[in-house]
Queue: 3 jobs
Job 1
Amino acid sequence: EKGGYEHFMLKEIHEQPAAVRDTVSPRIINGMPDLSQDGVDMQKLKDYRQIFIVACGTAMHAGMVGKYVIEKLARKPVIVDIASEFRYRDPIITKDDLMIVISQSGETADTMAVLRLAKEVGAATLAVVNVVGSSIAREADMVIYTHAGPEISVASTKAYMVQISVMYLLAFELAYANGTIDKERCMELTAQLGQMPDIIRETLELKDTCSFVASKLVNAESLLYIGRGLDYALSMEGSLKLKEISYIHSESYAAGELKHGTISLITEGMPVIAVATQKKLIEKTVSNIREVKARGAMVILICDNSIEVGEGVADYIIRLPQTDEQLMPMAAAAPLQLIAYYTSVLKGNDVDKPRNLAKSVTVE
Ligand code: M6R
């Protein structure tokens, strides 16, 4: 049942190219993103005052990527929140707003509660869900199913990848409907998204490098993931994955915030994983890397293969295949998952069933 892989997690990491293809290709019509078959009317969607994206854990991290690309391309304001925070903070949401909830299982209690809350105030609701017929899918006004197939490993991998694929489809179509990108740019981005299964496949070939990096992390007590913009969103997911299955403490930090307190944690040999795929931000991130390096950090840099990195900036570099900058989270996700996976394996942990956790969190 594990298809020759040692763990479900590794199998599911390798299923990502197919999962993305199955999720994305039926929704590209004549080179343009098209969610109308999912019952999504973009002309209506573009007129909502405010978009909320609410979810838990990894699904919330997918929402963070959604926020960046929707705001960047469609120029609509997006608030992302954790379901268990959103529901209790008397949120300002009205019938003029759109609530997007993201959930692999479709059964997460807090996410479900947020969906109900949004419906009560008359907001439009859209669920991005993997499990067909699940509670969240049944109650939302609109559903976009991700087609990852069953995800068995507690640590979510392929579900995250298809959730972000849907965020891209949404952002591209919304941006075009909103007139903030033209047809040519929309087709270009959509074509790149259509190519992502191949790019992800290429990134899976980095597994030996990732396992080597894991061997450098396995004895660490604590580490940091840093990035800016989309790379920060991705760092959050990388960090969660590592904590969840390797039991090594880690934190993700917006690179520019380090010097406001956290940099004091850096001691000789502490690993710092820096994600730097966004050209406009690379210089800034590199200067943050130099700051941690000067304090003794062991730096692992994840960047695309076009970026020139000066001598001595990083101890180890993971080079990603190139794609449109906006889509780089899809290229960086698998290496981050693999680093977590191999670290967990090296520690001899129960990779697919980490302690204290359940696959689906149906309690509040
Ligand atoms: O089923 P859901 O997507 O609603 O689950 C949300 C989180 O519980 C889930 O993503 C969790 O964070 C994962 N175990 C992380 O790998």
Job 2
Amino acid sequence: AKEDEPNSYHFYDNEMEQSIVRRLNMISDLKHAIEHDQFELFYQPKVHLASNTIVGAEALIRWHKDGSLIPPNEFIPVAEESGLINEIGKWVIETACKECAKWQKIGMKGLTVAVNLSPVQFKRGNLPTHIFRALQKYNLDPNLLELEITESLFIDNADHVKQQIHIMAEKGINFAIDDFGTGYSNLNYLTTFNASTLKIDMSFVRHMLNNPQQQHIVNAIIKMSRVMDLENVAEGVEDEQTAQELLAKGCVYGQGYFWSPPVPSDKFLRLLKQYANA
Ligand code: C2E
Ligand code: CA
Ligand code: CA
Ligand code: CA
């Protein structure tokens, strides 16, 4: 906005006002959604590349709002800013544990579930308590739960974050670094806490067959995971050739549209049975 154009100020104010109003509306819609059970978890299979078997699933949240399905990228940021992610996150953990316990009961023994965590969920310090409570409630082995965190969690090197991760890892809960390769460049954090898995970001994977640079990055991450004795998962595998190339490079697990997009729990069960009978 320029000073000699008073109208441009007005325009700017209106834009700001509108975006604030939109955010406030979304906050109140999210509160309503929490109270009225408008969330659902979808599940995307995690596949063992060498055997083409499903070994687990990542839980991904969806919001049913007025008949349409809102993707997480459109509301998680607002949930984070407003703190509502704490409540939503608790529901996600509960629901994912419940579902994973169900898989064990129907004979899908050892099938893991992965839950995405926001850095905001570590602020209050009671995350381990909530997670232990959910595991206990559904009698779920902590080793079947994987928590996906991003490198951004380690930017300020907070001791209370490491402490909470340590408490949970001691019980057998596994930690995966999501979107690996896109964030924080100092990898020191990997040596100071017990991650079990690196998830190679899909921006390196999706088009890697046509892009030597991306292949080099994928190679480097796979090598690094092996040297550090971490598991690796490639995200965003959309075709068979990419899956085969990843396997040849030493990648162990994959996720992506090639096998399945995230699907509702009943559809995921059908997928499991299909793979089990194949
Ligand atoms: P993410 O954890 O990196 O999840 C992977 C995203 O990639 C998912 O989008 C998934 O649907 C999509 N995807 C999977 N395979 C493919 C593929 O082959 N090709 C392409 N193009 N995309 C693929 P989604 O479900 O829309 O989730 C977006 C992000 O929202 C997630 O990224 C995660 O950061 C966040 N999120 C989702 N659920 C939760 C949750 O329960 N809690 C929190 N805190 N964040 C969540
Ligand atoms: Ca994830
Ligand atoms: Ca474990
Ligand atoms: Ca990811």
Job 3
Amino acid sequence: DAAYETILVETRGAVGLVTLNRPKALNALNARLIGELGDAIQAFEADEAIGAVVIAGGEKAFAAGADITEMASKSFTDVYFADLGGAWGRLVACRKPRIAAVSGYALGGGAELAQMCDVVIASETAKFGQPEITLGIIPGFGGTQRLTRAIGKAKAMDLILTGRMMDAEEAERSGLVSRVVPGDRLLDEALSAAAKIASFSRAAVLAAKEAVEVAHETGLSEGVRFERRAFQALFATEDQKEGMVAFVEKRKPAFRNR
Ligand code: CAA
């Protein structure tokens, strides 16, 4: 879209692809980029033809964090009223699955953007870190919360307090990354995972994502209750009939999102 300055937006079949595009600043997340990313994700959320979204960066950097030059001279009231952290709300509220395709640096806000995605596919070159402490601040786009839930307190404290980076292998072992692939396979792997997700019943996909998210936010018995009701509700869809009849008839299901 010509209206976007900091991202590239395209569709590949039923997949929406957003590529962060401030290569000279290693895709530093300034207010404009965060706003444009929110617009693009919201548009994909509203587009019935889209079933999943991939968020990619560049080869050297997925994103090297919030834009330090933009933040450097800001006062408390500047950042309080600008509320860049809150500006991610539109992305997080999107119910369609988001896949992050991470190559190179995913630091600070860039790591936090990956943590806001449902599936994280990393190239072997990926490096994750929360270096905010080295700047005299702390993570501000959810990192102390989402990273801790993703990889546990010991690893999260290590990364957030020392500012060190972890490589793709450690990130996968720790549970931050879903899969690690060779760099030349990264975008294909992310796009084909997204296409696969988009090929399934939309209602089942949204319910599955929502139920896993509930696991992060509630206790076990409440979560299991939520899952059971969502599971039962899917029996009201035509896609459930189609999926099961197709299995019995040994053919591929044709989901119609009904
Ligand atoms: N903000 C603004 N500009 C950035 C940036 C950032 N986060 N990260 C990199 N850049 C810019 C550099 O200033 C440089 O610009 P110039 O060419 O105009 O000098 C350009 O991108 C290339 O970067 P480097 O020359 O530094 O590249 P390098 O290969 O030597 O180092 C790096 C790469 C280790 C990632 C280094 O750029 C770096 O440490 N970046 C900052 C990482 C960081 O601290 N991120 C956290 C930001 S705070 C945050 O995110 C807060 C939050 O949670 C909300």
